[in-house]
Amino acid sequence: EKEGFEHFMLKEIYEQPKAVADTISPRIKNGKIVIDELEMTDEDIKKVSRIQMVACGSAYHVCVCAKYVLEKLAKIPVDVDLASEFRYRNPLMAKDTLVIVVSQSGETADSLAALRESKKKGYKVLGIVNVVGSSIAREADSVFYTWAGPEISVATTKAYSTQLAAVYLIGLLFGKVRGTIKDKEYREYIHELGRLPEKIQKILDEKERIQWLANKYSHTKDVFFIGRGLDYAISLEGSLKLKEISYIHSEAYAAGELKHGTISLIEEGVLVVGAATQPDLFEKEVSNLVEVRSRGACVLGLTSYGNYSIEDIADFTVYVPKTQDVFTTSLAVVPLQLLAYYISVAKGLDVDKPRNLAKSVTVE
Ligand code: M6R
Question: Where in the cell is it found (predicted)?
């Protein structure tokens, strides 16, 4: 079943171009985004006052991205909660809040409980789910299926990428209906969405460099992932991927938070992965990288082609193709998945079944 790949995780990383294309293409008709399964009229979409996103683990990291993406595209305020927190804090939600629960398995206990809590309070719940007919898919008012196909590896990769694609589609649809995206921009976004699979493929084709970096850093004890805005969201995911399958201690920080405590942990030999794909925040991120480097950290820069000035400060740099700023997460996550994967392989660990973890967390 691994189709020649050494592990399911690598197979699933390689399936991402197709999974993303399969999630996007059925929802684009005649140059327009159509998501019938939302079961929302234009009036319903216009009425949404806030969006409440809830999930666990990597799906939660998709929600963190979604806050930036949906607020930018559709100009709707987005709140993001961990399902395990949301379910017990008796959340106060504005009238006409749309609740979106994100889950690959559709069986995560806390996410399901969050869904039930929201429905009990009378809110409409949209599920972004991968497994057809799963509990969350059955109980949500409407379901957006991510067509990633079965995901076996405990560490999610292709499901995460298709969840992001779902968020882009929903953001563009809402933005168009609510008039927050101009026609020209809308066309450009749709064109660029269609190009994401080939750009992901290009990163996969350049995997040797990541493999080399992974071998070089497989003995590292501490890794910090830092970024701002969407680069912070991607840092959360990069850090989780690394810790779950390589057992290396890692943390993700909003780069601007470093000075509020974490920078005291930076010393000679610590690896800092600095994500800097967002043009408006690039200089700010670079200045944080200067600060950690001057304290002895080894800096791995992650940015888009063209931002070559990062080489003045980074020890190594990984470039991803350019795309719309809001879509970069889909590209920047791929080198981070590969980094975690190859470090786990270099350490001889059980990549697909890391210790203490289950694919689906059906108990709280
Ligand atoms: O099935 P779900 O998407 O609801 O699962 C949520 C998390 O358990 C999951 O993303 C977990 O964090 C992964 N192991 C991350 O790779």
Answer: Cytoplasm
